[in-house]
Specification:
Elements: H1 3-50, E1 54-59, E2 65-68, H2 70-76, H3 80-83, H4 97-109, E3 113-115, E4 120-121, E5 127-128, E6 130-139, E7 142-151, H5 153-190, H6 196-200, E8 204-209, E9 217-224, E10 227-235, H7 239-259, H8 265-282, E11 291-300, E12 305-311, E13 315-319, E14 322-326, E15 333-334, E16 346-349, E17 355-359, E18 367-368, E19 373-374, H9 376-386, H10 392-407, E20 416-422
Antiparallel strand pairs: 1-2, 1-7, 3-6, 4-5, 6-7, 8-20, 9-10, 10-11, 11-12, 11-15, 12-16, 13-14, 13-17, 17-20, 18-19
Length: 423
Amino acid sequence: MDLSVGLALGALPMAMLGAAVALAHAYNRLRERHEGAERDRESYLQVLEGSNDALFVIDFVNGRIHQANARAAQLLGHPVERLTRLTIFDLHPQELIRRSAERIAEAWENKGSVYADIPLVAADGERIHVECSTRVTSHNGKPAIILFARDIRERRALEARVAEQQAMVTRQNEELLASIRYARRIQRAVLPEADGLQALCPESFILFRPRDLVSGDLFWFAEVDGRKVVAAADCTGHGVPGALLSLIGAALFQEIVRDRRTVEPAAILDALREGFMQVLNRNEGASHRDGMNVSVAALDAGHATLRFAGAYHPLYLLRDGAITELKGDRMPIGIHEGEVAPFTQQEVALLPGDRIYLFSDGITDQFGGAAGKKLRGAGFRQWLLDTASLSMEEQHQALSDRFRIWKGEEEQVDDVLLIGIQA
Protein backbone atom coordinates (compact mmCIF):
# COMPACT_ATOMS: atom_id res chain seq x y z
CA MET A 1 0.00 0.00 0.00
CA ASP A 2 1.22 3.37 -0.88
CA LEU A 3 2.43 5.25 2.19
CA SER A 4 0.45 8.33 1.36
CA VAL A 5 -2.66 6.27 0.92
CA GLY A 6 -2.00 4.49 4.19
CA LEU A 7 -1.59 7.76 6.02
CA ALA A 8 -4.76 9.03 4.49
CA LEU A 9 -6.65 5.95 5.52
CA GLY A 10 -5.17 6.22 9.01
CA ALA A 11 -6.31 9.81 9.32
CA LEU A 12 -9.84 9.01 8.28
CA PRO A 13 -10.94 7.69 11.69
CA MET A 14 -9.56 10.80 13.33
CA ALA A 15 -11.48 13.01 10.94
CA MET A 16 -14.63 11.01 11.47
CA LEU A 17 -14.14 11.25 15.22
CA GLY A 18 -13.79 15.01 14.99
CA ALA A 19 -16.87 15.27 12.83
CA ALA A 20 -18.77 13.08 15.24
CA VAL A 21 -17.78 15.28 18.16
CA ALA A 22 -18.82 18.38 16.24
CA LEU A 23 -22.13 16.79 15.34
CA ALA A 24 -22.63 15.81 18.99
CA HIS A 25 -22.00 19.39 20.13
CA ALA A 26 -24.35 20.74 17.48
CA TYR A 27 -27.00 18.25 18.48
CA ASN A 28 -26.62 19.17 22.15
CA ARG A 29 -26.94 22.85 21.35
CA LEU A 30 -29.98 22.17 19.18
CA ARG A 31 -31.51 20.04 21.91
CA GLU A 32 -30.85 22.73 24.53
CA ARG A 33 -32.47 25.31 22.30
CA HIS A 34 -35.41 23.04 21.70
CA GLU A 35 -35.74 22.30 25.39
CA GLY A 36 -35.43 26.01 26.16
CA ALA A 37 -38.10 26.79 23.60
CA GLU A 38 -40.29 24.08 25.11
CA ARG A 39 -39.72 25.52 28.57
CA ASP A 40 -40.56 29.01 27.26
CA ARG A 41 -43.67 27.66 25.58
CA GLU A 42 -44.74 25.82 28.73
CA SER A 43 -44.00 28.92 30.78
CA TYR A 44 -46.01 31.13 28.41
CA LEU A 45 -48.89 28.65 28.43
CA GLN A 46 -48.92 28.54 32.23
CA VAL A 47 -48.86 32.33 32.46
CA LEU A 48 -51.42 32.74 29.69
CA GLU A 49 -53.84 30.31 31.27
CA GLY A 50 -53.35 31.51 34.85
CA SER A 51 -53.47 35.29 34.38
CA ASN A 52 -56.58 37.32 35.13
CA ASP A 53 -55.13 40.17 33.07
CA ALA A 54 -54.90 40.46 29.33
CA LEU A 55 -51.50 39.05 28.36
CA PHE A 56 -49.44 39.38 25.20
CA VAL A 57 -46.08 37.88 24.20
CA ILE A 58 -44.57 40.50 21.88
CA ASP A 59 -41.59 40.40 19.55
CA PHE A 60 -39.15 42.99 20.81
CA VAL A 61 -37.96 43.96 17.33
CA ASN A 62 -41.18 44.45 15.37
CA GLY A 63 -43.90 44.35 18.03
CA ARG A 64 -45.61 41.31 16.55
CA ILE A 65 -47.91 39.51 18.97
CA HIS A 66 -46.70 35.91 19.23
CA GLN A 67 -49.29 34.82 21.76
CA ALA A 68 -52.31 36.25 23.60
CA ASN A 69 -54.63 34.79 26.20
CA ALA A 70 -58.41 34.48 26.30
CA ARG A 71 -58.68 37.48 28.65
CA ALA A 72 -57.02 39.66 26.00
CA ALA A 73 -59.49 38.43 23.38
CA GLN A 74 -62.41 39.08 25.73
CA LEU A 75 -61.18 42.55 26.63
CA LEU A 76 -60.55 43.70 23.06
CA GLY A 77 -63.24 41.80 21.20
CA HIS A 78 -60.70 40.12 18.88
CA PRO A 79 -60.32 36.32 18.59
CA VAL A 80 -56.96 35.05 19.82
CA GLU A 81 -56.12 33.94 16.26
CA ARG A 82 -56.60 37.46 14.97
CA LEU A 83 -54.55 38.97 17.78
CA THR A 84 -51.59 36.80 16.81
CA ARG A 85 -51.70 38.31 13.33
CA LEU A 86 -51.40 41.84 14.69
CA THR A 87 -48.68 43.90 16.30
CA ILE A 88 -49.03 45.63 19.64
CA PHE A 89 -48.94 48.91 17.73
CA ASP A 90 -52.17 47.92 15.94
CA LEU A 91 -53.86 47.90 19.36
CA HIS A 92 -52.74 51.40 20.35
CA PRO A 93 -54.12 54.78 19.21
CA GLN A 94 -52.25 56.02 16.16
CA GLU A 95 -51.05 59.17 17.88
CA LEU A 96 -49.48 57.08 20.68
CA ILE A 97 -47.54 54.57 18.56
CA ARG A 98 -44.26 56.38 19.16
CA ARG A 99 -44.88 56.38 22.89
CA SER A 100 -45.70 52.68 22.70
CA ALA A 101 -42.36 51.98 20.99
CA GLU A 102 -40.58 54.02 23.68
CA ARG A 103 -42.29 51.99 26.41
CA ILE A 104 -41.19 48.71 24.76
CA ALA A 105 -37.60 49.98 24.56
CA GLU A 106 -37.70 51.12 28.20
CA ALA A 107 -39.04 47.74 29.24
CA TRP A 108 -36.14 45.97 27.56
CA GLU A 109 -33.55 48.37 28.93
CA ASN A 110 -34.90 48.25 32.50
CA LYS A 111 -35.80 44.54 32.47
CA GLY A 112 -39.43 45.49 32.93
CA SER A 113 -41.61 48.54 33.51
CA VAL A 114 -45.04 49.71 34.61
CA TYR A 115 -47.06 52.40 32.85
CA ALA A 116 -50.67 53.47 32.43
CA ASP A 117 -50.52 56.22 29.83
CA ILE A 118 -51.31 54.18 26.70
CA PRO A 119 -54.84 52.79 26.29
CA LEU A 120 -55.73 49.77 24.16
CA VAL A 121 -58.16 50.10 21.28
CA ALA A 122 -60.87 47.41 21.12
CA ALA A 123 -62.35 45.95 17.93
CA ASP A 124 -65.31 48.36 18.19
CA GLY A 125 -62.99 51.36 18.54
CA GLU A 126 -63.45 51.88 22.30
CA ARG A 127 -60.39 53.10 24.11
CA ILE A 128 -59.78 50.94 27.14
CA HIS A 129 -57.60 52.41 29.89
CA VAL A 130 -55.16 49.79 31.11
CA GLU A 131 -52.23 49.57 33.47
CA CYS A 132 -49.41 47.71 31.76
CA SER A 133 -46.54 45.84 33.37
CA THR A 134 -43.83 44.20 31.34
CA ARG A 135 -40.95 41.79 31.70
CA VAL A 136 -38.32 40.62 29.26
CA THR A 137 -38.10 37.05 27.97
CA SER A 138 -37.41 35.20 24.71
CA HIS A 139 -39.63 33.48 22.21
CA ASN A 140 -38.19 30.83 19.89
CA GLY A 141 -34.77 32.12 20.82
CA LYS A 142 -35.63 35.73 19.93
CA PRO A 143 -35.96 38.64 22.36
CA ALA A 144 -39.52 39.16 23.46
CA ILE A 145 -41.62 41.15 25.92
CA ILE A 146 -44.43 39.77 28.07
CA LEU A 147 -47.01 42.51 28.51
CA PHE A 148 -49.73 42.29 31.19
CA ALA A 149 -52.62 44.73 30.65
CA ARG A 150 -55.00 45.28 33.55
CA ASP A 151 -58.37 46.88 32.88
CA ILE A 152 -58.51 50.01 35.05
CA ARG A 153 -61.67 51.61 33.66
CA GLU A 154 -63.53 51.17 36.94
CA ARG A 155 -60.56 52.52 38.88
CA ARG A 156 -60.29 55.52 36.56
CA ALA A 157 -64.01 56.16 36.93
CA LEU A 158 -63.68 55.96 40.72
CA GLU A 159 -60.68 58.30 40.64
CA ALA A 160 -62.69 60.72 38.52
CA ARG A 161 -65.56 60.63 41.02
CA VAL A 162 -63.15 61.13 43.92
CA ALA A 163 -61.47 64.02 42.09
CA GLU A 164 -64.88 65.58 41.45
CA GLN A 165 -65.83 65.22 45.11
CA GLN A 166 -62.49 66.67 46.18
CA ALA A 167 -63.00 69.59 43.83
CA MET A 168 -66.47 70.13 45.31
CA VAL A 169 -65.06 70.00 48.86
CA THR A 170 -62.32 72.43 47.82
CA ARG A 171 -64.91 74.84 46.41
CA GLN A 172 -67.00 74.55 49.57
CA ASN A 173 -63.94 75.16 51.73
CA GLU A 174 -63.03 78.20 49.66
CA GLU A 175 -66.57 79.55 49.99
CA LEU A 176 -66.54 78.86 53.73
CA LEU A 177 -63.14 80.51 54.09
CA ALA A 178 -64.38 83.53 52.16
CA SER A 179 -67.36 83.73 54.51
CA ILE A 180 -65.10 83.49 57.55
CA ARG A 181 -62.83 86.21 56.16
CA TYR A 182 -65.89 88.40 55.70
CA ALA A 183 -66.94 87.59 59.27
CA ARG A 184 -63.47 88.68 60.41
CA ARG A 185 -63.96 92.01 58.65
CA ILE A 186 -67.27 92.48 60.45
CA GLN A 187 -65.74 91.51 63.79
CA ARG A 188 -62.86 93.95 63.32
CA ALA A 189 -65.30 96.68 62.37
CA VAL A 190 -67.37 96.14 65.53
CA LEU A 191 -64.53 95.65 68.02
CA PRO A 192 -62.15 98.46 68.97
CA GLU A 193 -58.70 98.65 67.42
CA ALA A 194 -56.00 97.29 69.72
CA ASP A 195 -53.83 100.38 69.15
CA GLY A 196 -56.64 102.53 70.49
CA LEU A 197 -55.91 101.42 74.06
CA GLN A 198 -52.65 103.40 74.03
CA ALA A 199 -54.60 106.56 73.33
CA LEU A 200 -56.60 105.81 76.47
CA CYS A 201 -53.69 104.46 78.56
CA PRO A 202 -50.31 105.43 77.04
CA GLU A 203 -48.36 102.76 78.94
CA SER A 204 -50.30 99.71 77.80
CA PHE A 205 -50.41 96.84 75.33
CA ILE A 206 -52.73 94.16 73.99
CA LEU A 207 -51.31 90.75 73.12
CA PHE A 208 -53.95 89.14 70.92
CA ARG A 209 -53.50 85.84 69.05
CA PRO A 210 -56.70 84.28 67.72
CA ARG A 211 -56.53 80.54 67.19
CA ASP A 212 -58.58 80.85 63.99
CA LEU A 213 -59.33 83.65 61.57
CA VAL A 214 -62.01 84.93 63.89
CA SER A 215 -61.82 84.94 67.66
CA GLY A 216 -63.99 84.15 70.64
CA ASP A 217 -61.82 86.40 72.83
CA LEU A 218 -62.93 89.99 73.14
CA PHE A 219 -61.17 93.12 74.35
CA TRP A 220 -63.14 96.30 74.89
CA PHE A 221 -62.33 99.72 76.40
CA ALA A 222 -63.81 103.18 76.67
CA GLU A 223 -63.60 106.31 78.82
CA VAL A 224 -66.81 107.60 80.39
CA ASP A 225 -67.03 110.44 82.92
CA GLY A 226 -63.31 110.22 83.75
CA ARG A 227 -63.38 106.43 84.24
CA LYS A 228 -61.35 104.21 81.91
CA VAL A 229 -63.21 100.94 81.55
CA VAL A 230 -61.19 98.01 80.19
CA ALA A 231 -62.51 94.47 79.72
CA ALA A 232 -61.05 91.13 78.63
CA ALA A 233 -63.63 88.47 77.78
CA ASP A 234 -63.46 84.84 76.70
CA CYS A 235 -66.64 83.75 74.93
CA THR A 236 -67.73 80.13 74.79
CA GLY A 237 -65.82 78.30 72.08
CA HIS A 238 -63.56 79.78 69.46
CA GLY A 239 -63.73 80.34 65.74
CA VAL A 240 -67.09 81.34 64.27
CA PRO A 241 -69.33 80.37 67.25
CA GLY A 242 -67.11 82.28 69.67
CA ALA A 243 -66.89 85.22 67.27
CA LEU A 244 -70.68 85.49 67.09
CA LEU A 245 -70.89 85.62 70.88
CA SER A 246 -68.11 88.22 70.93
CA LEU A 247 -70.20 90.46 68.68
CA ILE A 248 -73.09 90.14 71.13
CA GLY A 249 -70.71 90.99 73.96
CA ALA A 250 -69.30 94.04 72.13
CA ALA A 251 -72.81 95.32 71.41
CA LEU A 252 -73.79 94.89 75.07
CA PHE A 253 -70.64 96.67 76.29
CA GLN A 254 -71.47 99.54 73.95
CA GLU A 255 -75.01 99.78 75.23
CA ILE A 256 -74.19 99.37 78.94
CA VAL A 257 -71.08 101.55 79.21
CA ARG A 258 -71.39 104.17 76.49
CA ASP A 259 -75.15 104.50 76.18
CA ARG A 260 -76.23 103.88 79.79
CA ARG A 261 -72.96 105.29 81.15
CA THR A 262 -72.51 102.44 83.60
CA VAL A 263 -68.90 102.45 84.83
CA GLU A 264 -68.92 100.31 87.98
CA PRO A 265 -67.43 96.89 87.00
CA ALA A 266 -69.88 94.82 89.07
CA ALA A 267 -72.87 96.69 87.65
CA ILE A 268 -71.46 96.20 84.14
CA LEU A 269 -71.27 92.43 84.70
CA ASP A 270 -74.81 92.30 86.12
CA ALA A 271 -76.11 94.11 83.05
CA LEU A 272 -74.06 91.90 80.74
CA ARG A 273 -75.52 88.78 82.29
CA GLU A 274 -79.04 90.11 81.94
CA GLY A 275 -78.41 91.01 78.29
CA PHE A 276 -76.97 87.59 77.46
CA MET A 277 -79.86 85.85 79.20
CA GLN A 278 -82.35 87.76 77.07
CA VAL A 279 -80.49 86.88 73.87
CA LEU A 280 -79.99 83.21 74.79
CA ASN A 281 -83.57 82.74 75.95
CA ARG A 282 -84.76 83.82 72.50
CA ASN A 283 -82.57 81.14 70.93
CA GLU A 284 -84.09 77.69 71.47
CA GLY A 285 -80.86 76.05 70.32
CA ALA A 286 -78.71 77.88 72.86
CA SER A 287 -76.66 75.72 75.22
CA HIS A 288 -76.50 76.34 78.93
CA ARG A 289 -72.75 76.79 78.41
CA ASP A 290 -73.13 79.70 75.96
CA GLY A 291 -71.88 82.98 77.35
CA MET A 292 -68.56 84.44 78.43
CA ASN A 293 -66.02 84.68 81.22
CA VAL A 294 -64.85 88.24 81.65
CA SER A 295 -62.79 90.58 83.80
CA VAL A 296 -63.61 94.30 83.95
CA ALA A 297 -61.37 97.01 85.39
CA ALA A 298 -62.28 100.65 85.88
CA LEU A 299 -59.40 103.07 86.48
CA ASP A 300 -60.00 106.47 88.04
CA ALA A 301 -56.92 108.50 87.26
CA GLY A 302 -58.06 111.43 89.39
CA HIS A 303 -58.34 109.32 92.53
CA ALA A 304 -55.71 106.70 91.61
CA THR A 305 -58.07 103.83 92.26
CA LEU A 306 -58.79 100.54 90.52
CA ARG A 307 -62.19 98.89 90.71
CA PHE A 308 -62.50 95.29 89.53
CA ALA A 309 -65.14 92.63 89.02
CA GLY A 310 -64.76 89.29 87.31
CA ALA A 311 -66.89 86.41 86.05
CA TYR A 312 -64.60 83.41 86.48
CA HIS A 313 -61.66 85.61 85.42
CA PRO A 314 -59.09 87.20 87.76
CA LEU A 315 -56.94 90.31 87.53
CA TYR A 316 -53.22 90.41 88.35
CA LEU A 317 -51.71 93.45 90.07
CA LEU A 318 -47.90 93.64 89.82
CA ARG A 319 -46.26 95.90 92.42
CA ASP A 320 -42.67 96.00 93.69
CA GLY A 321 -41.75 92.62 92.16
CA ALA A 322 -44.78 90.78 93.56
CA ILE A 323 -48.10 89.79 92.02
CA THR A 324 -51.45 90.04 93.80
CA GLU A 325 -54.36 88.15 92.31
CA LEU A 326 -57.82 89.68 92.52
CA LYS A 327 -60.19 86.76 92.01
CA GLY A 328 -63.48 87.01 90.15
CA ASP A 329 -66.79 85.47 91.15
CA ARG A 330 -67.40 81.85 90.18
CA MET A 331 -70.33 82.80 87.96
CA PRO A 332 -70.32 83.21 84.19
CA ILE A 333 -72.00 85.75 81.98
CA GLY A 334 -74.82 83.55 80.74
CA ILE A 335 -76.99 80.73 82.00
CA HIS A 336 -75.86 79.57 85.44
CA GLU A 337 -77.20 76.47 87.20
CA GLY A 338 -76.28 77.69 90.68
CA GLU A 339 -77.61 80.61 92.66
CA VAL A 340 -77.69 83.83 90.68
CA ALA A 341 -76.27 86.61 92.86
CA PRO A 342 -75.01 90.11 92.08
CA PHE A 343 -71.35 90.26 91.08
CA THR A 344 -68.96 91.54 93.75
CA GLN A 345 -66.58 94.42 93.26
CA GLN A 346 -63.10 95.04 94.66
CA GLU A 347 -61.32 98.38 94.97
CA VAL A 348 -57.56 98.92 95.20
CA ALA A 349 -55.56 102.14 95.58
CA LEU A 350 -53.02 102.40 92.76
CA LEU A 351 -49.43 103.52 93.19
CA PRO A 352 -47.20 104.94 90.45
CA GLY A 353 -45.62 102.09 88.48
CA ASP A 354 -48.33 99.55 89.33
CA ARG A 355 -49.19 97.25 86.46
CA ILE A 356 -52.45 95.40 86.00
CA TYR A 357 -53.11 92.47 83.67
CA LEU A 358 -56.40 91.14 82.34
CA PHE A 359 -56.33 87.98 80.27
CA SER A 360 -58.19 84.94 78.95
CA ASP A 361 -57.15 81.41 79.85
CA GLY A 362 -55.78 80.73 76.37
CA ILE A 363 -52.26 81.65 77.45
CA THR A 364 -52.24 79.55 80.65
CA ASP A 365 -53.84 76.53 78.97
CA GLN A 366 -51.32 76.40 76.13
CA PHE A 367 -49.24 73.24 75.90
CA GLY A 368 -45.54 73.66 75.23
CA GLY A 369 -42.05 73.68 76.67
CA ALA A 370 -39.72 70.71 76.78
CA ALA A 371 -42.28 68.51 78.54
CA GLY A 372 -45.25 69.55 76.38
CA LYS A 373 -47.31 70.55 79.43
CA LYS A 374 -49.66 73.47 80.11
CA LEU A 375 -48.09 76.76 81.11
CA ARG A 376 -50.67 77.24 83.91
CA GLY A 377 -51.01 80.29 86.15
CA ALA A 378 -47.72 79.81 88.02
CA GLY A 379 -45.71 79.76 84.81
CA PHE A 380 -47.54 82.80 83.44
CA ARG A 381 -46.96 84.79 86.65
CA GLN A 382 -43.26 83.96 86.44
CA TRP A 383 -43.17 85.32 82.90
CA LEU A 384 -44.68 88.57 84.18
CA LEU A 385 -42.13 88.80 86.99
CA ASP A 386 -39.22 88.00 84.67
CA THR A 387 -40.18 90.87 82.36
CA ALA A 388 -41.37 93.38 84.98
CA SER A 389 -38.30 95.60 84.62
CA LEU A 390 -38.94 96.19 80.92
CA SER A 391 -41.01 99.01 79.51
CA MET A 392 -44.57 98.08 78.59
CA GLU A 393 -43.66 98.01 74.89
CA GLU A 394 -40.64 95.79 75.58
CA GLN A 395 -42.65 93.54 77.89
CA HIS A 396 -45.26 93.11 75.18
CA GLN A 397 -42.60 91.90 72.74
CA ALA A 398 -40.88 89.71 75.33
CA LEU A 399 -44.13 87.99 76.33
CA SER A 400 -45.07 87.50 72.69
CA ASP A 401 -41.69 85.87 72.02
CA ARG A 402 -41.97 83.68 75.10
CA PHE A 403 -45.37 82.42 74.09
CA ARG A 404 -44.16 81.63 70.57
CA ILE A 405 -41.13 79.74 71.88
CA TRP A 406 -43.19 77.97 74.55
CA LYS A 407 -45.78 76.80 72.03
CA GLY A 408 -43.12 75.61 69.59
CA GLU A 409 -44.61 73.00 67.27
CA GLU A 410 -47.63 72.43 69.49
CA GLU A 411 -51.05 73.36 68.12
CA GLN A 412 -52.54 76.51 69.62
CA VAL A 413 -55.39 75.26 71.78
CA ASP A 414 -57.41 78.46 72.21
CA ASP A 415 -57.54 82.16 71.51
CA VAL A 416 -54.97 84.15 73.45
CA LEU A 417 -55.66 87.58 74.97
CA LEU A 418 -53.55 89.59 77.41
CA ILE A 419 -54.05 93.26 78.30
CA GLY A 420 -51.33 95.08 80.26
CA ILE A 421 -51.71 98.59 81.71
CA GLN A 422 -49.30 100.62 83.84
CA ALA A 423 -50.75 103.19 86.22
